[in-house]
Amino acid sequence: MNEHRLHNPDTISRDVSPHPSRTALVLGGGGSTGNAWLIGVVAGLYDAGLNVTDADLIIGTSAGATAAAQLTGAIPADSLAATLVAVPVPARRTALAGSVDHRAQSGPVIDHLERRRRIIAAAEDAADMRRRTGGAALDLAATSDPSTQARWRATVASRLPSQHWPEQRVLITAVNAETGAPVVFDRNSGVDLVDAVAASCASGFAYGVDDGRYIDGGYRSNAENADLAAGYERVLVLSPFGGRALTPVEWGLHLASQVDALRAGGSRVEMIFPESSADHLFGASAMDVSLRPSAAQAGYDQGRVRAERLMEFWR
C-alpha cells in the first residue's frame, strides 16, 4: 500500500481549536474482555437514554477498533446481546496474534506482556519502541503459518455486523511494522474496514494490507490514543486498561498526559474505567472468552450508573 493513502497522525492536518457541539468517543484497547466491557458500557448508557454512538468522531484502538465497527454497525442493544451469549472455549490454545483473539489464554497474554516489557526497556524512545516491535512482528510473520493472515481476517470479519465503513468519522489506529510510523485508517484510506480492524488488533504478528504490514494500534502511543481527539469540545474516553501503560512516563504516552493536553487545549474530558471489583476480568485474563459475558455485564451496569451524570456533558 502506498503510504500517501494513509493518515499519519504526526502530519495530518486537523483543526485543534475546540468547537461547540463536537463530540469524540475514544474506545481503548483491552483484549477480548475489554471489547465486551466497551460494548456493555455503551449499551448501558444507551438504555439509560444517552447515545454516545452518535459522536462526531469515534477513535478505536485494537479491541476498541473492533468495538467501534460493531457499535456503528448495529444498535448497542444488539451488540450487547451478541456479547452476552457464552462462547464455547476451544480445547486448542493458540498464540495467533490479535488483541481480541478469543482463543488465546493467560499464558500467551503474560508472554506477550513480558516481550513488550523487554522491548520497552531496550528502546531509546517511543519511535524506537515501535520500530523494534514492528521488527519482531515481521520476524514472527516470516516463520508463521502462511494461512494465519487469512484466518485472522476471517475471524475479524465474523465479528463485524457490517463490512462497510460507517458514514460518521471513525479513526482506526495502527503502526507500520516496517517503519514504526503511526498510522490512522479511515473511510478515505482505501482500506476495507475489516482490514483496518484486523491491522489494529495485530499484536503478535504483522498483518498485511496490500504492500504494507501493520501491528496493533496500541503501539502508536497507548491503548487509547486519545490525543487524536484534539479539537473536539467534549471527549469521552472508555479505557478497559484504566489508563495504565507500560511505557516510561517521560515518553508522554500515558492517557493522563494526553488528557492533560486535551484539557489544556480547551476540551472537556470524561473517562470511564472498569470498577476495581472487575479487575479479575482484565489483565492476564483479557483473552479469556469465557469471561466476556461477565465483562459486558459489568460494563453495562457502569454505563447505567454513569448515564445521568454524563447527560449534560454529552449534550
TrEMBL record:
GO MF terms here are: hydrolase activity
Q: Where is the composition biased (Basic and acidic residues)?
A: 1-17
Under the heading PROSITE patterns, the entry gives:
PNPLA
Q: Where is this motif: GXSXG?
A: 60-64
Coiled coil ranges: none
Q: Which residue intervals make up region (Disordered)?
A: 1-20
Please indicate the residue ranges that the annotation assigns to the motif DGA/G.
Answer: 216-218
Name the catalytic site residues. Answer: 62 (nucleophile), 216 (proton acceptor)
Gene3D superfamilies in the record, alphabetically? Cytosolic phospholipase A2 catalytic domain
Q: Which GO terms describe its biological process?
A: lipid catabolic process
Please state every residue range assigned to the domain named PNPLA.
26-230
> What keyword terms does UniProt attach to this protein?
Hydrolase, Lipid degradation, Lipid metabolism
Q: Which domain of life is it from?
A: Bacteria
Protein name (record): Patatin-like phospholipase family protein
Species this chain originates from:
Cryobacterium zhongshanensis
